[in-house]
Specification:
The chain has 180 residues and is mainly alpha-helical. The chain is 70% helix and 3% strand.
Length: 180
């Protein structure tokens, strides 16, 4: 791994950690910028390095560094939202791989489409783990459709805006040469 790649991975580890702590209240919900930074990690670093950066962030939280939105530590695996962290890592890898296919043509629409695929990955893993964890680990039963409604449908518009923002920033960074 070259020095530039290590520096960019470190930068994205820090951005994802800070993004998890930036809380934006919208009505009764609170949103973070964590999702946008994991999308950007995949787009700008590629699949391998993007997943490495996001995976390192997750590992840091699991060893006890309080970088997650609700703290950290090994017991975080039992949190209903842990599936989203796994989803972020998979999403960074998939989006990074997709962004590198057909390198010649990188457009805002293409990056937005890639980010939307990433959003689906995060939703599938995150909502599934949320439902399973709520019903079988912490004994706080929730119906599948209720979990899908609260964790998916109600989050689509803000997450779409984050996908759009990440696509715009990703395109600008590509033009500026920040693309590994």
């Amino acid at each position: 791994m070259r020095l530039r790649e290590m520096v960019l991975c470190g930068l994205f580890i820090a951005l994802v950690a800070v993004g998890a702590l930036i809380r934006i209240p919208v009505g009764s919900d609170v949103y973070t910028l964590q999702f946008m930074f994991t999308l950007l990690a995949g787009l700008l670093l590629g699949g391998r390095l993007g997943a490495l950066a996001v995976g390192t962030y997750v590992l840091m939280g699991l060893v006890g560094i309080p970088v997650f939105a609700s703290g950290g530590g090994p017991s975080y695996v039992l949190q209903p939202t842990f599936g989203y962290l796994v989803g972020f890592t998979v999403q960074a890898w998939v989006c990074g791989k997709m962004a590198r296919q057909g390198e010649g043509e990188v457009t805002l629409g293409r990056l937005l489409t890639i980010n939307l695929v990433g959003m689906v990955i995060v939703y599938v893993l995150g909502i599934s783990y949320f439902w399973l964890s709520s019903n079988y680990l912490i004994q706080a039963p929730i119906g599948f459709w209720a979990a899908l409604w609260y964790c998916g449908v109600l989050q689509v518009v803000p997450d779409f805006l984050l996908c759009l923002g990440a696509a715009f920033v990703g395109l600008r960074c590509r033009k500026a040469g920040i693309w590994v």
